[in-house]
Design goal:
single chain; 439 residues; alpha+beta; Thaumatin; five-stranded mixed beta sheet; 26 strands; globular; GH64 domain-containing protein; signal; Glyco_hydro_64; Glyco_hydro_64_N_2
């Protein structure tokens, strides 16, 4: 996880937790409305954590320049930004002159807007824009925005100028009224790992393709053009169906334009108690069922298949170093708290069970026929019954080729299936990004 630099002019829960209309309305503010959390600060100690919950371990950075092309299928007025850490671990942005920009905070503790020329305009709709990274860039993001975003700087705990990025979760962030999305990547000079993820939110339709020196190509087409509007509509339909607050996951402008859709995990982080009892009955049914029969977790690794049973409000698995208490809805949405938190002393059994157990709860497959073995059911069985993550269900409906994580362990699937929106390889020659639909 990234280290948290604890500067906040107001609390995230206090802002997002206000009583918003249906849906949530973005009301952009100023510097006093910035809220700094681990999700929107890039500092000298922070590391982007990709949705596989594993981090690319980069080698000593080499001086390999790397081209990135962006095909604009969206609209006029589109901009690109690149943020990350240079080979010394210092936060930077890519400037319009092709060199890294090093923000300089004044040490007052008040975020200062970065005024350097870091907004890279995209060419017109249907055209391609190319930039070249001058050297390695890690913990990085390629931002695509319909308008100009605002980035700020403030000194971190090491006295180094950090980058404060736009926050999707804060409806009063200075950039809240802009529609944006990003692709995460690490490039160490010889190897790249890039990822499209919807674990936190859906912002703008992005796709990517990687070409390696060998000629091999990898493609993640991402979301269909116009997917944000469709996903917002899907959230509203689900609210009509079950009375839950799915519609409030959609963030719109004051005029009603859909800007982004928050994941339930990101939404409840600022709205404690929301969705509070949503999974309770399902959890109790799971506990009752597996008190009398084995739940088999296929760790898909050296630990093999592990037999588990429930008793005294805990799930105990053979060979595991500790048991699993009943999860809450927050545990299920985030997959990193309560029974799904992994600590350093956990053994391989535990590390294999956690992702597969949380995925089964998120997709609601534990009570289906064949659900006593996890994972064993294919994607057609995911999200088939309620309660479930209807956010994940709807997001996957609008993925062109079904790739792109909608929750942290979306890579958990029976052998041969893979939902990760990643491209990776050594000796890359081009990363192609499309915005507004794949082409």
């Amino acid at each position: 996880m990234r280290g948290v630099f604890g500067l906040a002019v107001a609390t995230l829960a206090g802002l997002i937790g206000q009583s918003f209309a249906d849906p949530t309305i973005a009301r952009p503010g100023g510097v006093d409305d910035i809220i700094i959390t681990e999700d929107n600060i890039l500092n000298s100690t922070s590391v982007r954590e990709f949705t596989t919950n594993t981090i690319l371990k980069t080698n000593a950075a080499l001086a390999g320049a790397f081209p990135i092309s962006v095909v604009n299928n969206f609209d006029s007025g589109m901009y690109m930004y690149l943020t990350g850490k240079d080979s010394s671990g210092v936060p930077v942005l890519l400037g319009a002159n092709g060199q890294f920009v090093y923000p300089q905070a004044d040490g007052t503790g008040v975020p200062q807007e970065i005024v350097a020329n870091v907004a890279l305009p995209l060419n017109a709709k249907g055209q391609t824009t190319q930039v070249v990274l001058p050297q390695a860039l890690t913990s990085a993001r390629i931002w695509l925005a319909r308008g100009q975003l605002k980035f700020y700087t403030v000194r971190d705990g090491n006295g180094i100028s950090a980058i404060v990025e736009p926050s999707a979760a804060n409806p009063n962030d200075p950039s809240a009224g802009i529609q944006w999305g990003f692709i995460e990547f690490n490039y160490d000079g010889t190897t790249i790992y890039a990822n499209i993820s919807f674990v936190d939110f859906v912002g703008i339709s992005l796709g990517m393709g990687l070409t390696l020196a060998s000629g091999a190509q990898q493609i993640v087409q991402g979301l269909q053009g116009g997917a944000v509007d469709n996903i917002c509509s899907g959230m509203k339909q689900q609210t009509s169906a079950d009375g839950q607050i799915w519609d409030q996951l959609c963030v719109t402008s004051s005029s009603g334009q859909a800007l982004r859709v928050l994941s339930p995990n990101l939404y409840v982080s600022g709205n404690p108690g929301q969705f509070g009892s949503y999974y309770d009955d399902y959890i109790n049914q799971v506990w009752n069922q597996y008190a009398g029969q084995d739940l088999v977790i296929d760790t898909q690794g050296a630990a093999g298949k592990v037999e588990c049973r429930t008793s005294n409000n805990q799930l105990t698995c053979a060979g595991d170093n500790r048991a699993y208490p009943k999860p809450t809805v927050v545990d299920i949405w985030g997959c990193n708290s309560g029974p799904f938190a992994i600590i350093d002393s956990d053994n391989e059994v535990h590390r294999g069970v956690v992702p597969r157990l949380c995925a089964a709860f998120t997709r609601s497959t534990l009570l289906l026929s064949g659900g006593n073995v996890q994972p064993s059911l294919g994607a057609s069985s995911y999200y088939a019954v309620s309660p479930t993550s209807h956010y994940s269900r709807v997001v996957h409906q609008y993925e062109v080729n079904g790739l792109g994580y909608a929750f942290p362990y979306d890579d958990v699937n029976p052998d041969g299936e893979n939902a990760s929106g990643t491209v990776a390889g050594a000796d890359p020659t081009l990363l192609k990004v499309t915005v507004g639909g794949w082409s």
